[in-house]
């Protein structure tokens, strides 16, 4: 790392019905940005009902929630609302519905890489 300053750790959780794929995709993004951000994938839930318990179980609290593309826009909004109600100030990002089917896992990584700086700053 070029700087002697340690990067702050940000815990990220995902809401994805394919947890192994989530781990691979997010792992690739984390690897690609490790020079700029210290992100830890702290957990995944496969259900909307699991969002609040997952958020409450991660300590320190997660700073980011990624919502996978298999959810409808309405479900993504519900997931993000649960996240914001549970952890005020959490950053959320919903991958556009259907994107995984269109572009595959590498396309999701590319999509997130194009947006990670915006997601981290918002």
What would you say about this model in short?
With 122 residues, the protein is of the alpha/beta class. It contains four helices and four strands, in the order E-H-E-H-E-H-E-H.
Describe the structure.
- The chain has 122 residues and is of the alpha/beta class.
- It has one domain (11-121): Rossmann fold, CATH 3.40.50.2300.
- 48% of the residues lie in helices and 19% in strands.
- The protein has four helices and four strands; from the N terminus they run βαβαβαβα.
- It has helices at 19-32, 51-57, 73-86, 99-121; strands at 9-15, 38-45, 64-67, 91-94.
- The protein has a four-stranded parallel β-sheet, sandwiched between helices.
- It is globular.
- It starts with 8 loop residues before the first strand and ends with a helix.
- The mean pLDDT is 95.
Fill in the keyword field for this structure:
122 residues; globular; Rossmann fold; 4 helices; alpha/beta; four-stranded parallel β-sheet
Terminal Cα separation, in Å? 24 Å
How confident is the prediction overall: mean pLDDT?
Answer: 95
Structural domain tally:
1
- Tell me the β content: 15-25%
**Shape label:** globular
Q: Report helical residue fraction.
A: 40-55%
Please tell me how large the radius of gyration is.
14 Å
CATH class: Alpha Beta
Poorly predicted runs of 5 or more residues: none
The biggest sheet, with number of strands, parallel, antiparallel or mixed sense and barrel status, is:
4 strands, parallel
Instruction: Return the CATH topology.
Output: Rossmann fold
Compute the number of strand runs. 4
Helix/strand/pairing class, anyone? alpha/beta
Order of helices and strands: EHEHEHEH
Strand neighbour order, sheet with most strands: 2-1-3-4
CATH architecture: 3-Layer(aba) Sandwich
Number of helices: 4
- CATH superfamily assignment? Response regulator
